[in-house]
Write a structure and sequence with these properties.
By secondary structure, the chain is α/β, with parallel strands linked by helices. The protein has helices at about 70-75, 80-85, 90-105, 125-130, 170-180, 195-200, 220-225, 230, and strands spanning about 15, 20, 25-30, 50-55, 60, 115, 135-140, 155-160, 180-190, 215, 240-245, 250-255, 285-295. It has a domain at about 85-190 and about 225-295: Rossmann fold, CATH 3.40.50. The protein is about 20% helix and about 25% strand.
Length: about 300
């Protein structure tokens, strides 16, 4: 039996991204996981997990685990059985992501310090170190050997399939920004809700509390100006400009340096349309990309 979840309320609450109304949307059992289509079917746990969906930005989230500690997440989700529900975690995904980083930034590897935020077992960073990157450090509070917050700033902060696991994604992004140098780049990826999500609803395979998927993004949830709350509380030497790329389920965020060192503001700008990843460049004229979100 898992630890007590937050008691459900039928009252509408505020969206964690834009603050708009987020009523109850549906419910699944705690044992719903990403590998069910491959035959990993668990018996019902008897623990209902309710999800809410924002009426404005369509962000989907559950607040069932908002009161859990890191130790509770480790005991009930990120335990020895986690590999059954995310078999790509150990090797194939981190090695593929490391290969992408080498292709995009290999030319400046000797001068690039990399932090992999939420990087799990350090497999990605080990591959980068072997490939010649000056420094590649893993930070993941759920993994004891990588749970100590690293010191210093990093030229490149990566975060692959991490935002869907955090109950407070804006706080996670703020934390990543704190690690980024000036100039610096934050390279994100999280799977976005598919075009037919309104038909699939919580039958979508990525709605998986047993995998720890508590925050599931729409494209609008990543791009709305309301997301400026990410940086409202930390005065940064940058202005963030949300810009869309033409690839399916992809959006690009760019970082422009501001002389007045005011807090960041995000706003859509349809003029910036690079392809991903072949035309994605490390430096732009007068700007540095802050991050890329992509999904299938």
């Amino acid at each position: 039996m898992i630890d007590r979840l937050r008691p459900i309320s039928t009252a509408t609450c505020a969206c964690k991204i834009c603050g708009s109304a987020a009523p109850l949307f549906g419910v699944v059992d705690f044992h719903k996981n990403c590998e069910e289509a491959r035959g990993v079917q668990l018996p019902l746990s008897g623990n209902p997990v309710y999800y809410r969906r924002c009426t404005n930005c369509k962000f989907l989230f559950t607040d069932s685990f908002d009161d859990w500690t890191t130790e509770q997440f480790k005991a009930h989700i990120y335990n020895d059985d986690y590999r059954l529900f995310d078999p790509d975690y150990a090797d194939s995904r981190p090695l593929a992501n490391a290969g992408a980083i080498v292709r995009l930034w290999g030319a400046i590897r000797q001068e690039t310090r990399v932090l992999d935020y939420g990087g799990g077992n350090d497999r990605l960073c080990a591959a980068l170190r072997q490939a010649g990157f000056q420094a590649a450090v893993t930070y993941d509070p759920m993994v004891p050997e990588h749970a100590i917050r690293p010191a210093g700033k990093f030229d490149l902060v990566t975060s692959f399939e991490t935002l869907e696991h955090v109950p407070d994604p804006l706080a996670a992004i703020r934390s990543m920004v704190e690690f980024a140098g000036d100039p610096g780049l934050i390279f994100f990826r999280t799977l976005l809700q598919p075009a037919d999500f309104d038909q699939q609803r919580l039958n979508w395979w990525y709605v998986a509390p047993r995998n720890g998927h508590v925050s599931l993004f729409s494209r609008d949830a990543l791009a709305l100006p309301g997301s400026a709350t990410v940086t409202d509380s930390c005065q940064l030497p940058t202005t963030f400009i949300s810009r869309f790329a033409p690839c399916p389920n992809t959006s690009v965020f760019r970082c422009r340096h501001s002389k007045n060192r005011q807090a960041a503001v995000w706003q859509p700008d349809a003029r910036f349309r690079p392809t991903y990843p072949s035309q994605s460049r490390h430096f732009y004229s007068g700007a540095v990309p802050l991050g890329i979100w992509t999904g299938r």
